[in-house]
Amino acid sequence: MKIRLHSSADQTATSICFGMNRDLDEQSLVTFLQRATSDELLDTLIPRLAEDEVAKVVDFLTGLMRKHLSEQEYHQLFLDD
Q1: N or C, which terminus of the chain has less Cβ within 10 Å?
Q2: 70 vs 49: CA distance, rounded Å
Q3: Strand, coil or helix: what is 81?
Q4: What is the DSSP letter of 47?
């Protein structure tokens, strides 16, 4: 299944719903992550994080990538190699 990115009009917090079914969970996760990585939110949140919180976020995300992506996919999709 290919996850389609929502248009900005579809990215409302009210469209996020988990626990109903896998497809809705995946679409909700896409919307959640897109909203969570907005420049304005990141500019506000990141300076407030403690060093250990920064390390935990990086460790969690790199762990997921290590588990679910091949080395080639990591370089292509994350590093844009």
Answers
A1: N
A2: 30
A3: coil
A4: G
CA 49, CA 33: separation in Å to the nearest integer? 18
pTM, whole model, 2 decimals?
A: 0.79
What's at 76, amino acid-wise?
A: Q
Please determine, for residue 32, whether its predicted confidence score (pLDDT) is greater than 70.
Answer: yes
Helices (H), 1-81: 22-36, 39-45, 51-68, 71-73
Summarised one tens digit per residue, pLDDT across range 8-19 is 445 688 889 999
Calpha distance 77→81 (Å, rounded): 8
Query: Who's near 51: CB < 8 A, 6+ residues apart?
Result: none
